[in-house]
Amino acid sequence: MKKGLLIILCLCFSLLAFAQKEHNALRDGDASYKQGDYTQAEEEYLRATEENPNSVKGHYNRGNAIYKSIDPSIDPEQLDQRLSKAAEEYLTAIENTDDKDIKAQAYHNLGNTYLEKQDFAKGLEAYKNALRNNPNDLDTKKNLMYALRQMQQQQQQQQQQSGEGEKSDEEQEQQENQEQQEEQEQQEQEQQEGEQQQEQEQKEQEKEDQESEGQSQSQGDKEEPTPEEKSEEEVLRQLKVMDEEEKKVQEKLKKEQRSDYKSEKDW
């Protein structure tokens, strides 16, 4: 009986010792992470996961430390390996927790890691899983839309490259002619719209001139504008038309702009 009790007590003390070592490693890792020493933080979090392989915080924070410590200028193969390691840490954290908030944050960071790897399909799926655990996360919704646009653009480029490889010279020439024709038609349409707008403004100006002339007759005769003044008015009307066209272009460019995805979520 006493022997069994001693064994139980020894196990309890061992578990407490392991837990204390994990706690100390996590604390040291957090301190290094806050100071921006992500390499040292990664080592401390690794020590925590060695003490407790199921440490959710250890794996999650190590994934963040790896992600933060990556130098984008390193060799592409090394970059891919580091990103893959960060992804593994996030997945391990997800597997060892039932907390939906932690799962959502880990999936969000996992999605960011896949985006860095240019694997937009996996990134999209990771963001979907994040939203399944936290449907109200606006950052994840924004990143999901970004990943979707990038994946669609990637697929279009692949289709174009594949199609160009299969096209004959005649088909390519036809496509180029069609593109030139469409561009010319668009330029003609823009020019026509500009002329119509300018004509409308001229009519409005003539109407204003007539009203002004009527008022001037009631107040007394005034001198006719000189040719120089008329030329100046024409220049001002043209500048106004150009400003309107520039506004249209700027609005079009704003609609085409894409927002970058949000950074990783810390513990």
Provide structural commentary.
The structure is a single chain. The protein is an all-alpha fold. The chain has nine helices and no strands. Helix 1 runs antiparallel to helix 2 (38-51) and helix 3 (56-69) runs antiparallel to helix 4 (76-95). The longest helix has 51 residues, at 169-219. The two termini are 45 Å apart.
- Average predicted local confidence, pLDDT: 80
Roughly how many Å apart are the termini?
45 Å
Shape: elongated
Secondary-structure arrangement, i.e. CATH architecture of the domain at 16-97: Alpha Horseshoe
What top-tier CATH class of the domain at 16-97 fits best? Mainly Alpha
Number of helices: 9
Précis, in short:
It is built from 9 helices and no strands. It has helices at 2-34, 38-51, 56-69, 76-95, 100-116, 120-133, 138-166, 169-219, 227-256.
Keywords:
267 residues, mainly alpha, 83% helix
Write the layout of secondary structure elements.
Layout: H1 2-34, H2 38-51, H3 56-69, H4 76-95, H5 100-116, H6 120-133, H7 138-166, H8 169-219, H9 227-256
Helix pairs in contact: 1-2, 1-3, 2-3, 3-4, 4-5, 5-6, 6-7, 8-9
